[in-house]
Amino acid sequence: MTTNQGNQPRGVAVLRNPWLNRGSVFTEEERDRLGLRGLLPPRVSTFADQVSRLKEVIDSEAAPINKYLTLESVHASDEALYFQLVMENVEEYMPLIYTPTVGEACQKFSHIFRYARGLYISSEDRGRVRELVANVPNHDVDIIVVTDGQRILGLGDLGVNGMGIPVGKLALYTACAGVNPQRALPVTLDVGTNNEEFLKDPLYMGLRQHRVTGPEYMALVEEFITAVRERWPNVIIPFEDFQNTNAFALLDAWRDRVTCFNDDIQGTAAVVVTGLYTAVRALKQKLSDQRILFLGAGAAATGIAHLIADAMAEDGIDRNEALKRIALFDSKGLVSSTRGDKLAPNKVPFAQAYENTTDFAQAIRQLKPTCIIGVSAQGGAFTEDVVKAMCEVNARPMIFALSLREASAQELELTALVSAQNPSCNPQLLVNAIEAYLPECKPDFARIRRLGNKTFVPRQGNNSYVFPGIGFGCIFVRAKTIPNQIFLTAAKTLANLVSESDLANGSLYPPLSQVRELSAHIAVAVADYCFKNGLAQVERPADLDKAVREAMWQPTDPKFVFE
User: How many Cβ atoms sit within 10 Å of the Cβ of residue 79?
Assistant: First the structure.
């Protein structure tokens, strides 16, 4: 019961294919033509009926991880339905399909595994990666999100359990920007894990060995990139949740050779620079006049710092001067040229002859930054003393609290609940506030948001604002490479979409509920940049905006069923 003329799947083969299945939405004519008569309940449902039915099921689950599992079961059986639900409720469900709930899902991956999705390449597959890539059923692939599972969110080394990250990330590329899910592939490189708990877990599904490193590791990555580029020459490869050293090494090795980027480094940078653009706009100041101090000096910190330097240079000052306006504070204290230790290469451009200190608040009083950005593994580091120090040197300081730390399953669950109920707020800040000030209460978010007689609307600096649009724009033009300027283009585009009413309400970002429209604007801007700078491999359409929007995949597109 598989094929007829034109090799069209029929019967059960249609219902068991998530790319083709539409469940009870199949029309009477389709049921006859595809051999589905009798295989479905007799009443034909509308797509809206199906979405409502699924939402009712999801909402009936109490625990976020159970909501996640239900969503993933639909993801594995009916992608059109899954994405329609997510698109209609993007703020509510984004914390479920990605952070923070995906963190708990990754921790439990080997215990909750139900459906095989994506491609797993292990270090034992050296020499035959091309064969594994050939097993992928997707005829065309536009984008591959790949991880090695070594630095999953703030949770550390999760090994093969990290597959939840590329799966969730690609779901957002589709829901937020219209990347065709049939042309998206999640990949995990399993080179082992140094997580002893997993190595002792009898249900752990990855290699039971400590991580492969050095030349053997890099050789596997090269074999993987070579194989996927041979089969899909225009594929875009975002690296996701690699440990800092490997993240920089891979980006440096491949960014000028293939169409790749690292969202942890570059996407995070774009969304933070967006916030800086809108913050200085609210303050009626220039970006180039700011002084920035980072808590953290890893991939995210230095990625953001370099993009800020690019933005400052574009604002009118020499880039070397811009670098002097940016300082880092790591686990050993203020990063300075006189500290006496050997600095990692990514820290060197920001090291000056500062007075050494291991006290972050003291570093603030010494450097007098206008903005502090937390991107470390140390949550809760922006203490009362830190905030007071910023207020001592600024009338209206800019504070970006982005740091992550390893969280318990219980903390992740609470964060997910808060985020799902109040998607426009930074969930962790709300959790912290509740624990500190309202431990006896159910969350009263209106009280938390009010200051005097005014209610503010804080919004999270989420990478989801930028990476989907960047990815889709690059797919649309078949970009040759993805230079850093593209991330600055995305940041400027997003900042320009922040309204004056958003700023008046205390928001540095537009509503995330508009992410599909925001992504379209970013994709158009990215495509325009590629056309103007010789990075596009297709002819520019007469109406770029229209062409980009028409290319964005929709779950209701009838071509989805019969392609």
Answer: 22
